[in-house]
Amino acid sequence: MALLAAAGLGAAFLLSGCGGSSLPPEAVVRAWNDAVVSRADDRAAKLIARDAIVIGADGAEQVLRTPENAVAWTRALPCAGLVRKLQTHQDIVTVTFLLGNREAGTCSAAGGTMTAEFEVRHKRIVFFRELSRTAAPVAAPTAAPAPAASGG
Q1: Which residue in 27, 29, 63, 141 has a CA-CA distance of 20 to 30 Å to 55?
Q2: What is the pLDDT of residues 79-95, one digit of tens each?
Q3: Using one digit for the tens of pLDDT, what is the confidence trace for 106-124?
Q4: Distances (CA, A) of 38 to 42, 95, 106
């Protein structure tokens, strides 16, 4: 019994002081993004706090009051992204993603980029705002073939 109590105290110590509670904000955002990319919507939603505020590109604000709201919001995301740039200032993480399709969705902005701002507190995302989006680069037109030289 004493061994179980000692193990419990050791686990509590590890979680409270030696890295368990010191997960940096950028690690939370990367973990959320990894879950979104792999379509693990429940896992992504667990990284979102109750009453988190999300603001889309159109400025519409939504409050994710429950874990079910967070799952539904995550599931509705049409795009996934590869992290291209990440900057952290205290609890604020600004990320630029290269957008692509999720496993079961169609991303109309695939090939473009999206920059978003996340605020992370206590290892949970409490605020998300899309800051900007750029369209996929348009392929340069190919040159018309040169007319064949006539021998004459």
Answers
A1: 27
A2: 999 999 999 999 999 99
A3: 888 999 999 999 999 999 9
A4: 11, 18, 15
Q: Which domains does the chain have, with CATH numbers?
A: 23-134 (3.10.450.50)
**CA nearest neighbour of 125 among 46, 13, 20, 68:** 46
**Which residue, chain included where needed, has tokens 């949970």?**
124
Would you call 18 exposed, middle or buried from its count of C-beta atoms within 10 A (0-12, 13-18, 19+)?
A: exposed
Residue 136 banded pLDDT, cuts 50, 70, 90: confident
Strand order in the sheet with 113-121: 61-64, 48-55, 124-134, 113-121, 92-101, 79-89
In the block, tokens 């996934």 appear at 80
